Amino acid sequence: MDTSSFKTISANKKTVEKNWVIVDADGQTLGRLASKVAILLRGKHKPNFTPHVDCGDNVIVINSKKINLSGNKWEQKKYIRYTGYPGGQRSLSALEQFGKNPNSIIEKSVKGMLPKNKLGANLFRNLHVFSDSDHKFEAQKPSTIDLNKVN
Question: What is the per-residue pLDDT for 4?
């Protein structure tokens, strides 16, 4: 019996094949988009997924200003930060945060779905969000991906 087929192959930095993909956020719901982008960044859709290795793809999200939030989240959802000074807690509604920077809403929601360690920080560097359909990564020849086909 050939037991070489039973070996588990663990990916490492040298054996990982990273692709460039484009995700269109036009008409997508924020949480569903963010969870699928996090799966792509992490590499969980690949058969050689290894939890401690960056084996995910580089993801370009376009049309971030056309994202949807369900229900009353535009007014009720709060983005809270702290200045570091006593009494320095500041909050913005989703609509105010979207007005300041439409990319930050997607970035914050995806970052919250990644690991909270050095690996998560490295994975987050593979995310590039643009508010319209123009992006600066044409040279990488990214392929467009349909989010409905991502698990």
Answer: 67
How far apart CA 91 and CA 77 sit, in angstroms, is 10
How far from chain centre, in Å, is Cα 43? 11
State yes or no: pLDDT of 58 exceeds 70: yes
| Position 2 in a domain | no
Q: Kindly state whether residue 95 falls inside one of the protein's structural domains.
A: no
State the pLDDT at residue 76.
97
C-alpha–C-alpha distance, residues 93 and 126, integer Å? 27
Distance (Å, rounded) from C-alpha 25 to C-alpha 62?
6
Rounded to the nearest integer, the mean pLDDT of the chain is 93
Q: Is residue 54 a part of any domain in this protein?
A: yes
Give the SS3 label for residue 14.
Answer: coil
13 within some domain: no
Cα(first)–Cα(last) distance of the chain, in Å? 35
**Contact (CB, 8 A) for 23 and 146:** no
Q: What is the domain range of residue 26?
A: 19-69+102-146
pLDDT at 100: 96
Number of independent structural domains in the chain: 1
CATH number at residue 47: 3.90.1180.10
- Distance CA(80)–CA(90), nearest Å, equals 6
